[in-house]
Structure formats: structure tokens, C-alpha cells
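From: lab user (bench 3)
To: helpdesk
Subject: output format question, protein + 3-methyl-2-oxobutanoic acid

Hello, I'm new to running complex predictions and I'm not sure whether the block I got back is the full result or only part of it. Here's what I submitted:
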Amino acid sequence: MRKSIFDLLERKGKQPVSMLTAYDYHTACTIDEAGIDMILVGDSLGNVMLGYENTLAVTVDDMIHHGKAVVRGAKEAFVVVDMPFMSYQASVEDAVRNAGRIMKETNCQAVKLEGGVEYADRIKAIVEAGIPVVAHIGLTPQSVNAMGGYKVQGKSLEQAQKLLADAKAVEEAGAFAITLECVPEALAKMVTERSNALTIGIGASSACDGQVLVYQDMLGYNAGFVPKFVKKYADLHSVMLEAFRQYKQDCENRSFPGEGQTYSISDEVLEQLKKEETERLLFKKVI
Ligand code: KIV
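Helpdesk reply: Thanks, we reran it on our side. This is the complete output you should expect:
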């Protein structure tokens, strides 16, 4: 049975929750089979699936396309789909309409949006429409240009006060979970202890009620930069690179396809075929 919002909230203060991103059917199936509690169809798909420099170009249609595939693959995990840049920033109406579209067309269980105090009215309206919301505060990648880069948030007194105010505002607006990205441990602990919502950390320490990572990062899928907070559980890039190189070599020296990957025809059929072919050629020559 699929996990519900109540199954997850029951875990607060008891057993931490696990969450990973997924963007396609097969990955969702595997993550689900591993028993991961929640899957996030993150707008990080802009970076890791579509090759954009940041998440800003991702559209509602992109999120729906990938969200549908993930929901088809995840039978038990609670699926959250991100609301992309400019799908909720301009107005409360936009926020409700786009959250509704995402939920209706993907059949996901919740949406996630970035921002604190300034977007609490959007969260409230979406929750009132019957759509569970995960808030996302701290480092919010959709505001990368305003933040001047991807930096740890909440280190100064002013920033820390802002983070606490954001957490309070999004919880009061009805968010059942709060993603805390790139936040110092002591601050993540304060938010977690003060809040009834589940805190899900990414670069926010084990003080949170749960953890989320981008699956390509934790699998070592990409050979480039990975943030300090990522733990690599595999080196998929090396495994894939080696396999692709081996395949290239096998194609070039004809060791692939081998006998095991090749179809055969009976000698009898082949003989008959050759005979008919010879007769046809002879007949052609006569006329
Ligand atoms: O889009 C995403 O993958 C996210 C995670 C970084 C939490 O928002």
C-alpha cells in the first residue's frame, strides 16, 4: 500500500524518513523496491536530466511528463512533485492552478515549492484546495541569482532569524513537511524541535526528521562536482563508462553479438531457401 501523509507524520521524533529524487519509471521502480519512503520528482531534473545550468528553465509540462513516469513506477513510496520556477511566484491563483494541474495529471501525493514567509499565502491556498504541500527553505535553487550562488544559508544572525521565521510561516500555512537545504546543524535542530512538520534535510545534518538526496549524486552517476553534503554510495559513472567502452570494442571486433545474442534458422529451411534461390537464378538466365 502506498504511504500516506499520516504514515509519514507519525514517524516524527521516532524513525527518520528516507527520500530520494527520481525522474523516470525504472529508477522509481528500483527506489520503491528498496523501500525508500518518499520520492521527489525534483526540478533538479533541469540539471541532471536535461543538462541545463540551473533549474530556472524547467516548465510545468516537464514536471508533469517526468512526474507521471515516476508515479507509474512507485507503488508504495509517497511521491512529491516540484513546482518549477514561475509556476507559483506571480500569484496565488497561478499557484493553485499549477499545483492542481500537477496533482491531477501526475497523480502524485504532494507538491513542493521553494520559499518561506513570502510564499506562505500560496502554500495556504494550495493546502486549502486539498493538495498537501512540502515547503523548501534555506538554500532555494530557484533563487540562485538573488542569492548570488549556491551557499550555506543561516550562518549569520539575520539569516538564522529569517530561516526560523520561514519555518514558522510555512508550517502555519499548512505545509506538512519542510525541506531544509544547506543549513547548519544547530539551526536544523532548532527548526526540527520547534516544528510539528517533518523536516527533510539536504545538507542540513542528521538532526532532521528525514533526508533527501539527488539520486545521481549518491550513486556517483556524474563525474563532475558534487556538494560536500553528498555521500557516494556507488561509483556508477565508472561502471557505466567501462561498460560503454567494452561495448564499443565488442562492436568493433565483432565479439558482440555472440552466439547467445543471435537467432538461428534450421539447416533444412536454409537448404531449401538456397535451392530455390539457385533455381530462380537459373530460370532468369534461360529467359
Ligand atoms: O529539485 C530537487 O532535487 C530538490 C532537492 C535538492 C531537495 O529540490
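A quick orientation on your result: The beta strands are 17-21, 38-41, 78-82, 110-114, 133-138, 177-181, 198-202, 210-213. Let us know if anything else is unclear.
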